[in-house]
Amino acid sequence: MPKTSPAAGRTLPGPMRALRHRNFRSYFAGQAISILGTWIQQVALSWLIYRLTGSVALLGVATFAALLPILFLGPLAGAWIDRHDKRRLLILVQGLLALQAAALAVLTALEAIGPTLIVTMSALLGVLNAFDTPLRQSQIGQFVGDRADLPNALALNAMAFNAGRFIGPPVAGLLLGLSSEAACFALNALSFSALAIGVWRVRVPTSARASGSTAAVFREGLRYVLDEYPVRTLILILAVVNLTASSYAVLLPVFAKDVFAGDARMLGWLWGAAGAGAVLGTVFLATRRRVLSLVKAVVGAGAVCAFGLLAFAYNRELALALAAMALIGFGISVGNVSVNTLVQSNAPDHLRGRVVSFVSATRFGFDAIGGLVAGLLAARIGVQAAMLAEGVVLALFAAWCVSRYSRLRAEVARQQDEILQAPHGTGKAG
User: Fold this and answer.
1) How confident is the model at residue 296 (pLDDT cuts 50, 70, 90)?
2) Which of 78, 81, 151, 159 is most buried, by CB atoms within 10 Å?
């Protein structure tokens, strides 16, 4: 990994240490603004769907359409981007994402939007995100230029994401009350320019590109994921947590309107509570200095999410519901970010784009499947029973994870030793 010099004389607290790197600061500022716009659009889109159709099943279908492309295209996109200039590609993708959001704003303002167009636009967003997510994630290590600061950079990146999740939904609720969904979509379109400018200002050497066909590059990455016990186990945990816990996002509009008899502002508060928990989760992770300690965090995160789901399902007290949402947000954040950090920190540099794409594909792809299942299940047995079922399944899986903790920790430690002993951290682990 190429080294970049931190700003001369800049000292920052340990939890913020990655920001001493100028390139990462430039990326981080643009990322924070872009993420805020993304969350405003997501809340507005959910409210638009339920306002127009009243269908919880369509909420699940739209989420499924937005996230499923990442499951199938993500790994192939990771192989493809490893063969190209990632920085230029990231700037290009921001422009395409801005066009998608602008088109959604225009269609909504003209009242030309309907279920078919919503699902189509969601699917287009999913295709673009299949490239955007691994492009963003795989370059963070190069932006900090120091493997020792990579875990902190990933935690801060997740903190920006979760701060957007905390701030964005209440802002979206306020904007929806004052204006319209179209205004939220237009604001998101503008936000992508912040990240494009931030990445344009980054100055790093051009990263080495993978050689060979996209298929051969893909197979190399897949072999690594399947052969390494800690990688495949961590990805399995990631899949189950997002299949169950992350499906709360699809059900929240129904809880806000039908269970708590609220409006878009109620949806914003519930979503914001989950965001607040997620922010606390990333603050917790930013203070961790030993990567190995994250194995316990991954195992514990599933149990925290299961407790939150079970506590929220049949509760009608708003204060307790907000606390349960915060627990779910905390657990999902800690689990997702810890898995990403463990896998990225131990991955050989030349495989990072592909490894990140498998992690992203699992996270968002199983989120999509879980959202679809939750929406269809809620339409059949009710929204509260559906969330209770998700919590029970996750609680059983969390118990299985506890039984695998010792072996997983030992294998992660072994992988860490091997990657550190390889020249410049570029050799293959295992």
Assistant:
1) very high
2) 78
Contact present, 158 and 109 (Cβ < 8 Å): no
The 3 state secondary structure assigned to 230-247 is: HHHHHHHHHHHHHHHHHH
pTM of the model: 0.73
Written out in words, the top-level CATH class of the domain with range 17-199+213-424 is mainly alpha
Q: How do residues 119-169 score in pLDDT, each as one tens digit?
A: 999 899 989 988 888 888 877 877 887 777 778 888 888 888 877 777 887
Pair 245, 305: CB distance under 8 Å: yes
For helices 115-138 and 22-53, the axis angle rounded to 10 degrees is: 160
Query: Which of 233-242, 285-294, 354-363 has the lowest average pLDDT?
Result: 285-294
Q: Is the dihedral of CA 170, 176, 181, 182 positive or negative?
A: negative
CA angle 184, 186, 192 (to 5 degrees): 105
Contacts of 413 (CB under 8 A, 6+ apart): 292
- The answer to whether 38 touches 168, Cβ cutoff 8 Å, is yes
Other Cβ atoms less than 10 A from the Cβ of 5: the count is 11
- Phi, psi dihedral angles at 207 (to 5 degrees): -75, 155
List the domain boundaries for the chain.
17-199+213-424
Q: Tell me the two tokens of residue 27.
A: 């990326």
Q: Look at the alpha carbons of 121, 126, 131, 136 in this order and tell me if their dihedral is positive or negative.
A: positive
What count of Cα atoms within 13 Å lies in the side-chain half-sphere of residue 221?
Answer: 32
